[in-house]
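#struct-queue
[09:14] JT: dropping the first one here, sequence first, then the structure tokens:
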Amino acid sequence: MPRIFFAALFFIISLSSCGNKIETGIPLFNNVAFKLQGQEKAIPLEAAAEKKYRTYFNNQPLNQIPLLKHIKHPDYELFIGLPYNTSFERLKQNRASTETQHISCTPNSCFKQYKTDDLQITEYLYQTPGKSLIFIAALTALPNLPDSLFSAAAFGQRILITE
């Protein structure tokens, strides 16, 4: 009986130590994940989510940003896209060309907030150390939520990169 117990214990410890899980984030690509918070849930991509994403974010033919993940919360939605066939500088210039309430850029990120169709919209573009691009967009109808939850620092901390 003790042999079975120790064998089972060894098996469980072995399984738990073999995982390559990145904290509590959802994997995006390679060693990059996005950390979920609170009541957020990654849901399967559906036609309605893709249509909403194309309407607000992926509507310019020169800057392709296909939708990769859709995350829902009772108060907001997050969309994660992976830009391709473009550069960080081109996307940064394109995102800065529209009217905004707030836009700020650093050498590896660009953040902007604006309002349209009674929605508060936040966009965050991030360039990983390996030069891969990640686009995160948040939609909410709550006017004060973007200031408290969707800041450049908050989005930056939610991108998890392991070496």
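[09:21] JT: and here's the second one, same format:
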Amino acid sequence: MKRHRLTSIVMFLVAGLAASCSVGSRSPMRGLVLPEDPLQLTIIQRTSKTIRGSDDTLSVHIDDITGGQVLVEVLRDSGPALVDTISMTPGDVVKFRVAEQEYHLTLTRLQNFLTGNDFAVFEVSTKAPLAEHIEAIRKAAQPPEVQKKPQQGDQAEHQ
């Protein structure tokens, strides 16, 4: 009878300890499952946005958008950042790893208003963006006078 009672007490303590360890803690992240690839994120400056498909464990944070650039971090809900603070301009790509999968965060657009909420648009993908896509992003980000500037050898220079 004493042995049965001792066994019951030990099982009760083990069950209680297991329950208390799991309260408030998350299961370890097994990976990021993007709902679409690439996943588009629009983030207002000085805010963070959760990466859909991460079970609310990953987010992208941006600071002020100024001078055609923004400071960006990819953060976990706990532990060190996946991408420490880095300055990005449209067309820049940073890589980060979740579990065994590599992801690419591409800054596709910055919108800087005189007043109002400035924002940045990113793509998160399992695939590296094509060079043509990066070039199109960079060209679209240039001021109109730079886009229309005649190239060497254009007829405008010869007149």
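[09:30] RK: nice, looked through the second one.
[09:31] RK: The chain is about 25% helix and 35% strand.
[09:31] JT: good to know. Residues 2-22 form the longest helix (21 residues).
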